[in-house]
Design goal:
Elements lengths: L39 E5 L4 H12 L3 E6 L3 H15 L3 E5 L5 H15 L4 E4 L15 H22 L8 E5 L3 H4 L5 H21 L5 E5 L8 H5 L3 H5 L14 H11 L10 E2 L10
Parallel strand pairs: 1-2, 1-4, 2-3, 4-5, 5-6, 6-7
């Protein structure tokens, strides 16, 4: 068990003075230019959308990145080119299906073999199938959704854990639907609720190893998954307009949450979720 770190007994008269405290509160840190300098991150679904924005920002902040993706080779190649040409970091592309346990194990092993270390795991890959009601949800689609969205997180993280050390972190992508539900994405929302529970449980399990586990629950973000999911063009056009900000968010507007959670700025956070969702109040 991790030892409790308590301060010595002490008392002051109001309002209190920082200079008389033992130890002194830490109120400033050295300026950090590259918050992830020489770190290695594995990002699933990193070819496009939120995953791409995260991979690019991590590289901009000094990290090498392994990108796991399905078969969007052109998007993945563009991400790799930007990481290497714009930010001078290494990028490894690992194509394959995260809904398969064997691939998840192989992907993590390939990333570690290439970079010789692993500091950050971002479980971001996801899929969804629109259904008007419960009776129209196809079992095959539901199974694929669970295998891709939540089973993969267990498999990727389990394979990564032997390589993670004190100070490493895991960041899981959930969704606003985990908190408010979705009448046309019920199985998808269910997986996102499971991700919240998994994240909080794993955070508690790993706290003594000083490995932080947090998550991000985005709202409506403009990614390739949107036009690929919804059949009605008008629905795609209106994506995100129902939130208080009246628009869909951009992947770059979400990536900063992942950077914060991956950096020392979030050193006192574990088991928590950030909510870049255009103003929806979900209290989670």
């Amino acid at each position: 068990m991790r030892k409790k770190k308590s301060n010595p007994p002490q008392k002051q008269s109001r309002p209190g003075h920082e200079k008389e405290m033992t130890p002194k509160p830490q109120t400033d840190l050295p300026k950090v230019v590259n918050k992830l300098e020489n770190k290695v991150a594995l990002v699933t679904g990193g070819d496009s959308g939120i995953g791409k924005a995260v991979a690019l920002l991590f590289a901009k902040e000094g990290a090498d990145v392994a990108i796991v993706y399905l078969n969007e080779h052109d998007d993945a190649a563009d991400t790799k080119n930007k990481i290497e040409s714009l930010y001078g970091r290494r990028c490894l592309l690992i194509p394959g299906d995260v809904s398969k346990e064997s691939f998840c194990n192989a992907a993590v092993n390939k990333a570690f073999k290439t970079f010789k270390r692993l500091d950050i795991v971002v479980n971001n890959a996801a899929t969804q199938f629109e259904s008007e009601d419960l009776t129209s949800i196809k079992t095959a689609n539901m199974r694929k959704t669970f295998e891709t969205n939540i089973f993969s997180m267990f498999w990727i993280t389990r394979a990564a854990l032997p390589h993670l050390k004190k100070g490493s972190c895991i960041i899981n992508s959930a969704s606003v639907t985990a908190y408010r539900g979705s009448d046309h994405l019920m199985d998808y929302a269910a997986t996102k609720g499971a991700i919240v529970a998994f994240t909080r449980s794993l955070a508690s399990n790993l706290v003594d190893k000083e490995i932080r586990v947090n998550g991000v629950a985005p709202g409506p973000i403009w990614t390739p998954l949107i036009p690929a999911t919804f059949n009605k063009r008008k629905k795609v056009a209106k994506h995100g307009t129902s939130v208080p900000m009246k628009r869909a968010g951009q992947p770059v507007e979400v990536a900063g949450c992942y950077l914060f959670l991956a950096s020392q700025d979030a050193s006192y956070m574990t088991g928590q979720f950030l909510h870049p969702n255009g103003g929806e109040i979900v209290n989670g």
